Request: fold
Amino acid sequence: MITKIQTDFIRLDALLKLAGVADTGGQAKWMIQDGTVLLNGEVCTQRGKKIRPGDTVTVDDITITVE
Reply:
């Protein structure tokens, strides 16, 4: 799945909501803290992590590429 952003970066929790992977910010927070979110292939537990174009976020079998 490709998600386009109009800014230089987006926070990880906001990206999960924007892409429809999480319904709420609380759900996104739980997913990130649980260690199920990979940023560029590595576990990321920082919900405020800045995600920039070119980054790839994976949750379960869903991969989000940011453009």
Observations:
- DSSP finds two helices and seven strands in the chain.
- The CA atoms of residues 14 and 20 lie 10 Å apart.
